[in-house]
Amino acid sequence: MNRFLASRLFDGTQFKNDVEFVVDNGKLRFESHPSGSDVTRLEGITAPGFIDVQVNGGGGGFLNADPTLSCLTTIVTAHAQFGSTALMPTLITDQVAVMEQAADAIAEAIARKEPGVAGVHFEGPHLSHPKKGTHSEQFIRPISEREFAIYARTDLGIKMVTLAPETVPLSDIKRLVELGVKVSIGHSNADFETTMAALEAGADGFTHLFNAMSAYTSREPGVVGAALWEDNAWCGLIVDGHHVHPASAKLAIRSKQRGKIMLVTDAMPPVGTDDQEFDFFDGRKVIRTGDRLNSTTGELAGSVLDMAGAVRNSVNTLDVTLSEALRMASLYPAQYLGLATKGRLIDDADADFIVLDDDLHVLQTFINGQRV
C-alpha cells in the first residue's frame, strides 16, 4: 500500500488542494489522514492519466512494421512519459496477415495485463479510396470472413474499427456491433444520409474529425455535418496545429454536446525520439519537419503529437479551460471506451494518474499505482 499527498488534485470534476490518498492493489482510496509517515508528496497538478484511442507508434516502434508484444511495450513506454496511462494501439490499413499478427500481440498483452494496453484499433482497411489519406490504396478492401474472424475474437480487450460507411453494408456494421466492436466512421466520402444510417446501425464515433472525411457544405452536410449533428457520437480531434485549423476545432467544441470531443494524437514512431524519418508503405518514407509529419507523396502522415501536448494546445490555442482539456484527454475517452474505472480520481478508480507542472508538462506518470 502506497500513500500520497497531492498538493493540487483534479479528480475529473474539480480541483482540490492537499488531498491525501492511498493506492491499494492498483486502486485508489481517499482518506483524510493516512496513517504512517511514508507519504509521497506530489507537487504540481495531479490528474487522471490520459487515454488515447489512436496511437500508431512511438519510441521508434510502428505497429504495422512490427506487430509484436515488444513493439507494444515500446509504444506504451514512449507515451507514458507524456501522461498516457491507457491507449488503443492502432493498426492502419494493411494485409490481413499483419492484422492477425497484431491481434495476436494484443491478445498476449491483454493476457499478461501489460500496463497501458486497453485493446486494439483497426483504422481500416475498409475505407474510401477518395479519402484514403496516406493509407496504402492497394490494401483497401471490403470486410472478408477472415477479417470478421479477427473482429470476433474475445481476447483483444476493447475492439475498435474505423471504416467508411459507403463501402461497408449496414448489415456488416450491425454484425460488427453485435461482435462487441466499436465502429468509428473515418476516411470516408459518404453523404449525410449514409453516415446517419451507419450511426443508426450502431456506429458511435468519428475518427480524427475533419480529416479525411467529406466536408460540411450548405447543400450536403457530409460526414463532418453528421459528426457535429449527432449528439450521441464521440469525435476524436487532433490538436497539433496542422490537422485542424483552431477556428474549426473551436467550432466543433462549441457545437458538440459536452463530453463528446476527445483528444487523440494519431501518433507515429518519432514520438519520444529525435528520429526525423521512418519507412512507410509502398517504398515511401515519412519525413518529420519540426512537429509535422508528411509522407514523401505529400500527405499528412499521422503526427508527433503527444497527449500532454494536445492538452497544452487546447488550453493555449483553443481557449479551453484546463479542467475541460483534462477531461477531453481522460474522462471523455474513458467514457467512449466504456472504461468505468478510469478517467477520474475517486474511490475505487484505477490508480492511473499523472503529475503536471504549471506549464502542463508531465513530471510523473503512474499506472496501477506504479511509477513508470
From TrEMBL:
The keyword Signal does not apply. Binds 1 divalent metal cation per subunit. Its cofactor is a divalent metal cation. It catalyses: N-acetyl-D-glucosamine 6-phosphate + H2O = D-glucosamine 6-phosphate + acetate. Zn(2+) binds at E123, H187, H208. Substrate binds at T134, N211, A212, R219, H243, L300, A301, G302. SUPFAM superfamilies: Metallo-dependent hydrolases. Residues 47-372 form the Amidohydrolase-related domain. It is an enzyme of class 3 (hydrolase). The active site is at D266 (proton donor/acceptor). One of its GO terms (molecular function) is metal ion binding. Its EC number is 3.5.1.25. Keywords: Carbohydrate metabolism, Hydrolase, Metal-binding. Pfam families: Amidohydro_1. One of its GO terms (biological process) is N-acetylglucosamine catabolic process. PANTHER family: N-ACETYLGLUCOSAMINE-6-PHOSPHATE DEACETYLASE. Belongs to the metallo-dependent hydrolases superfamily. NagA family. This is N-acetylgalactosamine-6-phosphate deacetylase.
